């Protein structure tokens, strides 16, 4: 049997469906990766991958091999971690999360964590779009909003306030809505945080109102919708995480403050479930503890 590197390399080629993509990820050349996988297949006496000019696809044997290989590689990682002095983490930790969450909250909190584990490499994939977390070899995904159906293990690590905001310049030109219904008279900036069912749901006392709004300006990332609102393009609904800096310096102003909106839950997803590597579980515990200490959030 080939060494562990060959087995790990196979998992990446199989999931990415590409020798060249796996090669770039692992710092090897495409011919090197192709040769290593071919040697692995020769040793096993089985064809694991079908190569065409357009794609690399697992055979039935390759899919079976991958399903049995994953828990073995994770167990090896756990065994190394269990005997390592000081429980120091090593290897690569891959995390996925929206750009606003990463830039404004998670990355600034990671300094102590990486100091504790200097041999651990951290990769953060920034995206507000759904991803195939297993294919992307993501250890931990941070997601905002309702819990979607998934085979992954998930835990809520924080709750953050939702806010309705606009720039001072926009308010000076158009006035501020006094009631949720008046939002229909204003220009709306849409983004990932503003298209969910709770985005424009308001409550005050016994009154509860849901407003259906059509965006005049739309972007597929929360950072874009906050930038658009700051530029005076309209009113947006987003998380306090996404615009705390702008609220602090006055470039954005909260609206409809006498109405309450539902907090946004923040979940950590572990795609491999109970088999998640030690580094993935450790960073979730670290972030959860940090949010619990921060009085701005509830957990």
Short description:
40% of the residues lie in helices and 21% in strands. The chain has helices at 4-16, 19-26, 30-44, 60-83, 99-109, 111-116, 168-174, 222-230, 240-249, 278-293, and strands at residues 49-51, 56-58, 91-97, 120-126, 140-144, 153-160, 162-166, 189-190, 201-204, 207-210, 217-218, 236-239, 253-254, 264-270.
Question: How would you explain this protein's 3D organization?
Answer:
- The protein has 299 residues and is α/β, with parallel strands linked by helices.
- It folds into three domains: 4-76, Winged helix-like DNA-binding domain superfamily/Winged helix DNA-binding domain (Arc Repressor Mutant, subunit A); 85-160 and 265-293, Periplasmic binding protein-like II (D-Maltodextrin-Binding Protein, domain 2), CATH 3.40.190; 162-262, Periplasmic binding protein-like II (D-Maltodextrin-Binding Protein, domain 2, 3-Layer(aba) Sandwich).
- The chain is built from ten helices and 14 strands.
- The strands form five sheets. It has a five-stranded mixed beta sheet with strand order 4-3-5-14-6. The protein has a three-stranded antiparallel beta sheet with strand order 12-7-13.
- Helix 1 (4-16) packs across helix 2 (19-26) and helix 1 packs across helix 3.
- The longest helix has 24 residues, at 60-83.
- The radius of gyration is 23 Å and the shape is elongated.
- The model has no long low-confidence stretch (mean pLDDT 87).
């Amino acid at each position: 049997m080939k060494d562990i590197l060959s087995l790990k390399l196979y998992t990446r080629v199989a999931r990415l469906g590409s020798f060249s993509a796996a090669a770039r990820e692992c710092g090897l050349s495409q011919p090197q990766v192709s040769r290593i996988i071919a040697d692995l297949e020769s040793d096993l006496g089985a064809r694991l991958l079908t190569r065409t000019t357009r794609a690399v696809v697992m055979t039935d044997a390759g899919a079976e091999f991958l399903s049995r290989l994953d828990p073995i590689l994770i167990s090896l990682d756990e065994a190394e971690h269990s005997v390592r002095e000081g429980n120091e983490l090593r290897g690569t930790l891959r995390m996925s999360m929206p750009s606003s969450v990463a830039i404004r909250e998670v990355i600034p909190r990671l300094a102590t964590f990486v100091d504790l584990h200097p041999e651990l490499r951290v990769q953060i994939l920034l995206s507000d779009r759904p991803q195939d977390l297993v294919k992307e070899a993501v250890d931990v995904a941070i997601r905002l909003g309702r819990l979607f159906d998934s085979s992954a293990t998930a835990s809520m690590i924080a709750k953050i306030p939702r806010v309705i905001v606009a720039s001072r310049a926009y308010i000076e030109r158009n006035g501020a809505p006094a009631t949720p219904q008046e939002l229909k008279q204003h220009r709306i900036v849409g983004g990932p945080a503003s298209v969910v069912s709770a985005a424009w749901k308001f409550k005050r006392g016994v009154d509860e109102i849901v407003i259906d709004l059509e965006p005049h300006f739309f972007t597929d990332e929360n950072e874009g919708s906050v930038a658009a609102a700051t530029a005076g393009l309209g009113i947006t609904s987003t998380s306090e995480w996404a615009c705390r800096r702008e609220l602090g310096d006055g470039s954005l102003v909260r609206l409809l403050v006498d109405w309450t909106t539902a907090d946004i839950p923040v979940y950590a997803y572990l795609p491999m479930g109970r088999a998640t590597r030690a580094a993935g579980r450790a960073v979730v515990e670290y972030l959860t503890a940090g949010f619990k200490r921060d009085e701005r959030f509830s957990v």
